[in-house]
Amino acid sequence: MTFTSWQFGAFVAIIFGAYYLPPFRTFQVQLLVLASLLFYGYGQPALLPLLAVAVFGTYLLLVLALRNRRCWLPVGIVFNLLLLAFFKYKFLFFSPASADLTGVTPVDFLLRLPLPIGISFFVFHNISLLVDLTKRKVSPPDLKSVFLYIIFFPQLVSGPITRAEMFMPQIKPKYFFDVPFIDAGKWILTGFFFKLYVANNLNEMTSYMDFPLYETLRTQDRWLLVFLYSYQIYADFFGYSAIAIGLGLLFGYRLPVNFNLPYIAASFSEFWTRWHISLSNWLRTYLYIPLGGNRHGAWRTYLNLMIVMGLGGLWHGAGFSYLTWGLMHGLLLVAERPFLARLQSIDSSVFRAVRIGFVFVGVTMLWIFFKLPNFDHAVGYLQGMFTPSPSPNPPKLFYDLALLYSLPVMIQHLLPSRRFERALGAIEPYLYGAMAALMYLEAGPDTAFIYFQF
Question: Catalytic amino acids?
Answer without folding.
Answer: 316
